Automatic annotation (TrEMBL):
GO BP, one annotated term: carbohydrate metabolic process
Domain NodB homology intervals: 59-262
Listed name of the protein: Polysaccharide deacetylase
Main subcellular location of this protein, as a coarse class: secreted
Source superkingdom: Bacteria
Cited PANTHER family: POLY-BETA-1,6-N-ACETYL-D-GLUCOSAMINE N-DEACETYLASE, PTHR34216
Pfam families found in the cross-reference section: Polysacc_deac_1 (PF01522)
Keywords of the record: Signal
Any GO CC annotation of this UniProt entry: extracellular region
Molecular function via GO: hydrolase activity, acting on carbon-nitrogen (but not peptide) bonds
Subcellular location as annotated: Secreted
Length: 262
């Protein structure tokens, strides 16, 4: 099952998000390809529910967004609504406008807290993406709990209901982070992995396919056809472990969490 990950949908992205953005025209083409391939889109929350019920009717896909860029409301959502497609948006609560002092982050305009109820009313499922967007697996226990629990509480206070889903900033998690995510009260955790989601995937390590500025139509079509780049080589697993150890060590030496914005 393809679980697609988008960030910004814009023709004029800022420096930080530019490699991870797609143009509105390309986004529209990709949505049409999803429909042409016969997929029915569900939210991340519905995916978890269907997994728990061991039910997966038809060809399903999930469209997700990370961070909470303002262009979600002005560019992405109109294209989704024109095609009657649902989506899940994971927001970095410390970056949202109208919430007081802003955490260090990208220069691009972000969504405002006041827009969140409107997005929900338009069929968007909302989830958390931490408060300040650190590499969660570089944090100590107290800081990790803060980055998981604070955005959940803030969003639930703003929306008036439970927020069940979490997406890990930068896609980094690891067993310790996944356990903490479950303990914080979330029902699922979205990673990246650039692989198709499979029925036996850990619900706290949901695989997603990240759309980049350079993602080709051929690559996107291959994902929709069920082909991904997932490697079964044990070397790939050890490389992930080694990279995580390096990032955690660097964070300890610098005495600050790994992040692209600090």
């Amino acid at each position: 099952m393809p679980v697609l990950l988008y960030h910004a949908v814009t023709d004029s992205p800022g420096r930080h998000v530019a490699p991870f953005s797609v143009s509105p025209a390309e986004f529209a083409r990709q949505l049409d390809l999803v429909l042409d391939a016969g997929y029915r889109c569900v939210t991340a929350g519905e995916l978890v529910r269907l997994r728990a019920e061991r039910a997966a009717p038809g060809r399903l896909a999930v469209i997700t967004f990370d961070d909470g860029y303002a262009d979600f409301a002005t560019a992405a959502l109109p294209a989704l609504r024109a095609r009657s497609l649902v989506s899940t948006l994971y927001v970095t609560t410390g970056w949202l406008a109208g919430g007081g002092a802003r955490e260090p982050g990208p220069s691009d305009p972000m969504l405002a807290w006041s827009q969140l109820p409107e997005l929900e009313a338009a069929g968007v499922e909302l989830g958390a993406h931490s408060h300040s967007h650190p590499q969660l697996d570089t944090l100590g226990r107290a800081a990790l709990d803060e980055e998981l629990r604070r955005p959940k509480q803030l969003l639930e206070d703003a929306l008036g209901h439970e927020v069940p889903g979490m997406a890990y900033p930068h896609g980094y998690s690891g067993p310790r982070v996944r356990r903490a995510t479950r303990a914080a009260g979330y029902g699922s955790g979205a990673a990246v992995r650039n692989a198709l989601h499979r029925p036996d995937d850990d619900p706290f390590a949901v695989s997603r396919l990240m759309l980049m500025r350079g993602t080709t139509t051929e690559q996107f079509g291959a994902w929709l056809a069920g082909v991904d780049g997932r490697s079964g080589s044990p070397l790939a697993g050890w490389a992930t472990v080694g990279w995580r150890a390096y990032r955690r060590g660097r964070a300890l030496v610098r005495r600050r969490p790994g992040s692209a914005y600090r």
